[in-house]
């Protein structure tokens, strides 16, 4: 007799508007200018996305010096520092910037505070491309904190002239705790409200919290180096649900299903829906499956492409 498996499919899940825009920028750049188009770093953190774009003619490089003179250059959705932008400009590289508009908003907030004489603290993870890009966009740089303990170790120039910004892909709960610690230690600190954290991050996290009320196991489809995907798994762990972050169906382990009758499935903001569909197909071979989509949240955010890709192609 086949086992019965109830699958609760999170909604929203997968691609956010910033990721859709970034991928579309690379695709349209290839269509318009022809291959190869060079992309600094992974356009988004997902192997399948990168492989698909590579097959179309995108070349992913670590640094600008890996890009030939005159080659069409795309900056990833995570954003870049002003030094990298200046370097590209000095080399005359034709650049198309795929930085997520919500990340650009963080850059603008940080610069505004810096212009007003405030020292900037960033809530985020050192080494993450978004954090490194933001660090290089704010005059005077930033101090990065990842925990309330980090807040206690901060040394600042003037406790009355401080502001904070946040990495867009962090857990709302983690951010709330760190913000509370910052405000407790530095009562005059200025910064955005929690609602200013990326809408997609909040929605995907809330959908996982809702899922965890009904499931015995949580599967998060996303890359191991994807910050927002890792946060989704961590929420499941916090809710005391066995939780796994898997790159694709090949990373799924049937042994996880022992004693499990209800499975929650979601995907990080840079994971394509095809990966979810492949996982569901695999689960469907393991029992009598019923699939129910949760939540009534509908995302209809759309970010415009850069002007250079919206203009009609000139016919020579």
Description:
The chain is α/β, with parallel strands linked by helices. It has three domains: about 5-15 and about 200-295, Cobalt-precorrin-4 Transmethylase, domain 1 (3-Layer(aba) Sandwich), CATH 3.40.1010; about 15-100, Rossmann fold (3-Layer(aba) Sandwich), CATH 3.40.50; about 100-195, Cobalt-precorrin-4 Transmethylase, domain 1, CATH 3.40.1010.20. The protein is built from eleven helices and twelve strands. A five-stranded parallel sheet has the order 10-9-11-1-12, sandwiched between helices. β6 (about 120-125), α5 (about 130-135) and β7 (about 140-145) form a beta-alpha-beta unit. α8 runs parallel beside α9 (about 225-240). The radius of gyration is 21 Å and the shape is flat.
CATH class (first level) name of the largest domain: Alpha Beta
Shape summary: flat
Named at the architecture level, the CATH assignment of the largest domain is 3-Layer(aba) Sandwich
Quaternary form: single chain
Strand content: 15-25%
Q: Mean pLDDT, rounded to whole units?
A: 93
Q: What is the H/E string?
A: EHEHEEHEHEHEHEHHEHEEHEH
- The CATH superfamily label of the largest domain reads 4-hydroxy-3-methylbut-2-enyl diphosphate reductase, catalytic domain
Biggest β-sheet: strands ordered side by side in the sheet: 10-9-11-1-12
Query: Can you tell me the residue ranges where pLDDT is under 50 for at least 5 consecutive residues?
Result: none
């Amino acid at each position: 007799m086949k086992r019965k498996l109830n699958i609760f499919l999170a909604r929203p899940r997968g691609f956010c508007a910033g990721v859709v825009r970034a991928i579309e920028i690379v695709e349209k750049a290839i269509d318009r200018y022809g291959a190869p188009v060079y992309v600094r770093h992974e356009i988004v953190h997902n192997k399948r996305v990168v492989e698909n774009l590579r097959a179309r003619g995108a070349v992913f490089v670590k640094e600008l010096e890996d890009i030939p003179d005159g080659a069409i250059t795309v900056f990833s959705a995570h954003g870049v520092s002003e030094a990298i932008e200046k370097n590209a400009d000095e080399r005359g590289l034709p650049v198309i910037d795929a930085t997520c508009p919500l990340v650009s908003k963080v850059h603008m907030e940080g610069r505004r505070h810096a212009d007003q004489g405030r020292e900037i603290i960033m809530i985020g993870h050192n080494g993450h491309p978004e954090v490194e890009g933001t660090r290089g966009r704010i005059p005077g740089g930033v101090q990065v904190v990842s925990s309330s303990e980090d807040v206690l170790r901060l040394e600042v120039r003037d406790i009355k002239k401080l502001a904070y910004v946040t990495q867009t892909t962090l857990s709302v709960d983690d951010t709330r705790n760190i913000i509370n610690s910052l405000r407790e230690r530095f009562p005059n600190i200025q910064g955005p409200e929690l609602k200013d954290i990326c809408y997609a991050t909040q929605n995907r996290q809330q959908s996982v919290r809702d899922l965890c009320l009904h499931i015995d196991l949580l599967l998060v489809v996303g890359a191991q180096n994807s910050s927002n995907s890792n946060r989704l798994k961590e929420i499941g762990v916090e809710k005391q649900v066995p939780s796994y972050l898997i790159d694709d169906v090949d990373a799924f382990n049937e042994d996880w299903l022992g004693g499990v009758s209800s499975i929650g499935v979601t995907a990080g903001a840079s994971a394509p829906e095809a990966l979810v569909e492949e996982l569901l197909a695999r689960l469907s071979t393991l029992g009598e499956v019923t699939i129910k989509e949760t939540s009534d949240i509908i995302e209809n955010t759309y970010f415009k492409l850069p002007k250079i890709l919206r203009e009609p192609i000139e016919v020579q």
